[in-house]
Amino acid sequence: MSDVNVGLSAGFFDVDGTLLRRQLSIELHDAMIARKLVIMPSDVRQKIDDALNAYKYRRGRYDEYIRLVTDAYYYRDLWKGMDVSLLRLVAGRIAKAKSAEMYEFTRELSLAAQATGRHRALISGSPHEAVEALAEEYGIRIFLGSKMEHDGSVYTGKVESHWVHCKDQAVQLLADRHGFALEQSFGIGDTPSDVGIFEKVGYPIAFNPNSELLDVARARGWPVVIENRNVILLLRWRNGRIEMPTLSEILPQDLAAEVQRRLPNLR
Length: 267
Hints:
The chain has a domain at 6-21 and 102-262: HAD superfamily/HAD-like (Rossmann fold, 3-Layer(aba) Sandwich). Helices cover 44% and strands 21% of the residues. The protein has eleven helices and nine strands. A nine-stranded mixed sheet has the order 4-3-2-1-5-6-7-8-9, sandwiched between helices. Strand 5, helix 8 (195-198) and strand 6 form a beta-alpha-beta unit. It is globular. The chain starts with 9 loop residues before the first strand and ends in a 5-residue tail after the last helix. The model has no long low-confidence stretch (mean pLDDT 90).
């Protein structure tokens, strides 16, 4: 795949846990609670708090905490009647405050994609308002976030679109809309919900994957990038054996060279 028409290629980025070290949905959840934009039932709030404490003390999984927060907002009508402009204001402030809290590899990959003339797209299960505000901070014009229906003034409480479990459809939607050549594009994410992205593009990357995604990446031979503190490792499993590929083996050559220039100590 060395002959790449850069103008037709794109980079598809998951946001929470991939581009950002933070979870946009959690940041928005905390802000909405703090500002009393929503009143959460006490039993639901208790389950969420219990799941968070279980994760903090390594008795539970972070994925379960995220699932409970997501279910609370998207399937319990907590947004119903909320002022649209106020939520956008809160989302904008969160994006501005948290946008710099990025992983080094994905930050430089995004900048390298921009420098080499590629399109960049954000695909996230987090609320559209937060994803839109974050995209604006990064100068990214193409994005999809989960949408709640509203009448222009307040939210109705109905889910309009939720991309967590259908990111393959999100990628195809953007490809059809913008004319991207998916076999020349890359995608990066950290959980099984991103498999849909990987299956659509020519250059998939599992980034700091959870155990479920790691199993899939190993089975499919997809490259894995691990970033921990100041160390970034590239890994790949072939025929049951682990290897350390070069950037040019997992990305188009011009993009790989630009990432390598930005990350000279990449191992």
